[in-house]
Design a protein that fits this description.
The protein is an alpha/beta fold. It folds into three domains: 200 residues, FAD/NAD(P)-binding domain (3-Layer(bba) Sandwich), CATH 3.50.50.60; 110 residues, 3-Layer(bba) Sandwich (FAD/NAD(P)-binding domain); 114 residues, Enolase-like, domain 1 (2-Layer Sandwich), CATH 3.30.390. The chain is built from eleven helices and 22 strands. The longest helix has 25 residues. The chain starts with 5 loop residues before the first strand and ends with a strand.
């Protein structure tokens, strides 16, 4: 009989924690999961799922306008925030139940409450001490908020999902994907949106052509983008808030949404006292197999601050379970991970950016196309789609693919398989396109637009 209560104790019931627990249990491990909020973590409750539902909701305003060009008469219309939130909450509650069922049907014990690590094999939760051969920390991340200057009057992306009403005027602070997505969501629902970012162009880390194209398209939609600008202070005023920016301008708004980044949720978990080494942002430092500086304590997902994407956390979870309980040491593969920004229009990306390609490969060929989608030849919209291929000239391998346009995430998911398989430009060229689609452009671009030696 084991001298521990469990083989694995998982702290965090998000996608990563749930998957690691379920798969470990399928290998015969005795597993418990502790969660102090709702099962499903950030993604299900205040992240990917409700946000994507809001993206769908917000795009109807443009769809109604486009319908007229195709002969449809759309009558009087209005948007009801309360209906959307109620329907969204019902779906999230359904998903919470699914996660609970997944765990219980696989024999995983669910413990509600906040856990604190006592030592390398012990946690305490609600006054109860639990021992485990392995402890997995999968607590995820949390929105970072500014300090001082009335910052307590602002909301984070957590609270935006639970507002009682849609703000008529909102200031979005930040330049990451969360800020960009909510700027589009709120604009589509009817809010007057101003977005400020302290740098010269938002979405740092994405390809420059994609960033520039998106900024152009958002401005066409009359979203007020202000770069090289930051929030200085917020104060209450009659009928709302007054936000002062660092250029001295003042905005009267109903809400200020701060989406300036996320930090690993490791504070006050007892990790450092147990000997776990943390990085500058509070992230748990792990080796290639997910083990921390304390061999019995492991970490996956956003709490490690490696690649903060839900599918990555799931992949890391499966690898960890195989390593610990199936005798197959498995290291997660973090190369060529596809991603999408559900901005309006969307961004899809896989592989390296042009700047990274030039630094890594030296001699590259760049293929780029910009066009108006077939749909908009009737609507009159000037929205542009941008597609880009980056090719290592020495091997002819496609090393980066980027797109701005409708359904970019859906399209790039398929392209990502080719990039992962090291497909060459010749193989892209030999692929017959599906006509008429936007995606066929990826296999019909023949002449490079730029080259570097």
């Amino acid at each position: 009989m084991s001298r521990y209560d469990y083989d694995l104790f998982t702290w965090g019931g998000g996608w990563g924690g749930v998957r690691a627990s379920r798969v470990s249990a399928s290998y015969g491990a005795r597993v418990a999961v502790a969660e102090e909020r709702d099962l499903g973590g950030t993604c299900v409750n205040v992240g990917c799922i409700p946000k994507k539902l809001m993206v769908y909701a917000s795009h109807y305003s443009e769809d109604f306008e486009d319908a007229a060009a195709y002969g449809w008469t759309v009558g009087p219309r209005s948007f009801d925030w309360a209906t959307l939130i109620a329907n969204k909450d019902r779906e999230i509650e359904r998903l919470n139940g699914i996660y609970r069922t997944i765990l219980t049907q696989n024999g995983v014990e669910i413990i509600e409450g906040r856990a604190v690590v006592v030592d390398p094999h012990t946690v305490e939760i609600g006054g109860r001490r639990i021992t485990a051969e392995h402890i997995l920390v999968a607590t995820g991340g949390w929105p970072r908020m500014p300090e001082g200057g009335g910052a307590e009057l602002a909301i984070s992306s957590n609270e935006i999902f639970h507002l009682e009403s849609l703000p008529e005027r909102i200031l979005v602070v930040g330049g990451g994907y969360i800020a960009v997505e909510f700027a589009g969501i709120l604009h589509g629902m009817g809010s007057k949106v101003t977005q400020v970012y302290r740098g010269p162009l938002f979405l740092r880390g994405f390809d420059d052509d994609a960033r520039t194209t998106l900024a152009e398209e958002m401005r066409k939609k009359e979203i007020d983008l202000r770069f090289d600008t930051n929030l200085a202070s917020i104060e209450e005023a009659s009928g709302g808030l007054v936000a002062t920016l660092d250029d001295g301008s003042r905005l009267e708004v109903d809400q200020v949404l701060c989406a300036i980044g996320r930090v690993p949720l490791t504070r006050d978990l007892g990790l450092e006292a147990a000997g776990v080494r943390l990085g500058k942002k509070g992230e748990i430092e792990v080796n290639e197999f997910g083990a921390s500086s304390v061999p019995s304590i492991h970490a996956i997902g956003d709490v490690t601050d490696r690649v903060s994407l839900t599918p990555v956390a799931i992949h890391e979870a499966v690898c960890l379970a195989a390593t610990l309980f199936d005798g197959r040491p498995s290291s997660p593969d973090h190369q060529d991970i596809a991603s999408a920004v559900f901005s309006q229009p969307n961004i899809g990306s896989v592989g390296v950016t042009e700047a990274q390609a030039r630094a890594e490969y030296g001699e590259i060929d760049v293929y780029r196309s910009k066009f108006r989608a077939l749909k908009h030849t009737l609507t009159g919209s000037s929205e542009q789609t941008m597609m880009k291929l980056l090719v290592d000239r020495a091997s002819d391998r496609v090393v980066g693919v980027h797109m701005v346009g409708p359904d970019a995430g859906e399209i790039i998911q398929g392209i990502a398989i080719a990039v992962k398989c090291h497909a060459t430009k010749a193989q892209f060229d030999a692929t017959i396109g599906i006509h008429p689609t936007a995606a066929e452009e990826f296999v019909t671009m023949r002449e490079p637009v730029a080259a570097a030696d």
